[in-house]
Amino acid sequence: MMSQVKLSSTMEDYLETILNLEKSKKFVRVKDIALKMDVKLPTVTSMLNNLAGKGLVNHEKYEYVELTKKGKRIAKDVYRRHVIFRDFLMSILNIDAKTAEEDACKMEHVVSPVTLERFVKFMEFVDTCPRGGSDWLLNFDQFRKHGRDDDKCLERMKHFEKRYSVEITKLRDKIE
To answer: Who wins on pLDDT, 62 or 16?
Structure first.
């Protein structure tokens, strides 16, 4: 089994940036990376040399930058984590897009694979489970803003019971 390359969050950010630039440009240049990451050219060059030394990018002085197969695999994984957290923060917790992007960028570097997959499963649950969906999330948003209201909780439970009695019957018939 190949040993995992230990990368800093900054290294992962560079790989993710290169991957995203590759999607929109035919060739990625050092100055493209510098502009996207808001850093100076020598900083990018230094990091590219470091990443090249780890076999994650191909880059020669004054040439284009490209991810190696290994670099692309890592970059895609970082990007996947980013998207999962961004979508969770925006869709589930109703965080504004700018804050969600910033927080997702931080979270993507520190979460374990187990926690990440739990986020994915939770999001699937919200989308597919009968108690999930937008009503449930709107109720969460109201709870977040105003706290628990027993009368509203009871009203929602009764509504839930009526709404899903038909769905329960359909599932029961399907299983039997």
So the answer is: 16
